[in-house]
Amino acid sequence: TKDKTTLDAQIKLMKLKRDIGDVKGSLAIFEHVRQVWQKPGCGEKEKCDELQAQIRNWITNWNREEKKFQTPELTQAYVIYTNTFPEDEEMFLWGADVAKQRKQFRQAADLYHRGADAAHAKLNARKIEPEAKKSAALIFEGSLIGEIDMAETLKDYELRIRAYNHYLALNPKGSKNFEVRYQIAQ
Q1: What is the tens place of the pLDDT at every residue in 26-70?
Q2: Contact criterion met (CB below 8 Å) for 137 and 150
């Protein structure tokens, strides 16, 4: 009970800190929430899902508020979130998009890479609803292509080869299969 109460209170404090403009303090609390979440844990699945949804909404609302000029702290919030909840493929994609807009191309490439892995895992799960499958498939393809785009933008040979091989390993029959093989040959 103590851990659930602690997490709930910390999440509320995290939101308040950001609302009053203390973004760095808010992220410090978020990092603490991540540590508590991982050890000793959250507790009941229902309560954990509720707390995760609160955190997710906090970040997506923050993203909406900063649509025109996104801060490095927003990218950091996405990174902390995705490290805590690595199965949420949609947040990887949104975090990568923020990093891309901020011209943090390496960070974006990493988030796209991890998002593709999360979407791939979801697509290969035994039980998946049709709507979730459709969404995961779009995120999967978009993340793989986003990773390649970031690697090519950086003009980093090693990162490009890694992105091409990642695409072919996860999606060998994908729509960009021929183009990716051509780029590797070049």
Answers
A1: 999 999 888 888 876 777 778 888 989 999 999 999 999 988 888
A2: no
